[in-house]
Design a protein that fits this description.
The chain has 160 residues and is of the alpha+beta class. It folds into 2 domains: 71 residues, OB fold (Dihydrolipoamide Acetyltransferase, E2P); 74 residues, Winged helix-like DNA-binding domain superfamily/Winged helix DNA-binding domain (Arc Repressor Mutant, subunit A, Orthogonal Bundle), CATH 1.10.10.10. 26% of the residues lie in helices and 31% in strands.
Length: 160
């Protein structure tokens, strides 16, 4: 295990990333539990703790895995709009839904954001008491909801 400077070469929408060791040119895999915490961007340099990649495979193309990032050598310049979460836009969209309810998919598609981002924003708003949430279960023995619905108030889920 050693810290090395890694230049980010690819950031995947599923949360993981790849980089290149600055001084050796060797590939580095950055798993989601590391990459998502750092808001990595292509071209940014980070100082990462590298270990031998256990899933390197026979072709030996990615010998390293980054298990933590100590610091960003190059901090990307981020404007205030990029820095904020989409919570305000999600809240406004839900409140403007004219008394109806929305699925996470509805929110994501209409706002042009990822499904997970929309769901996380709506969950934060619910946790803060700003919106209501309803769970729909497809079968009686399900522990997880089939669909989660979001609305401005609980009354939006029922008709009179």
């Amino acid at each position: 295990m050693e810290y090395q400077e890694v230049i980010i070469s690819n950031v995947h929408t599923r949360g993981f990333a790849f980089g290149v060791c600055k001084y050796t040119g060797e590939q580095v895999f950055i798993p989601p539990f590391v990459a998502l915490l750092q808001k990595l961007e292509v071209g940014v340099s980070v100082i990462g703790l590298l270990v031998v990649n256990p899933k390197n495979g026979d072709n030996n193309t990615t010998p390293w895995q980054c298990i933590s990032i100590r610091e960003m050598a190059d901090k990307p310049e981020v404007d205030a709009a990029q820095q904020s979460t989409p919570d305000a836009a999600v809240l406004e969209f839900i409140r403007d839904s004219r008394g109806g309810y929305l699925t996470t998919k509805d929110i994501a598609e209409d706002l042009g954001i990822e499904h997970r981002t929309a769901g996380n924003a709506a969950q934060r708003l619910f946790n803060d008491g700003k919106i209501a949430r309803a769970e729909v279960h497809g079968r009686p023995n399900q522990t997880r909801a089939t669909i989660i619905l979001w609305a401005a108030t609980p009354r939006c889920f029922v008709t009179e």
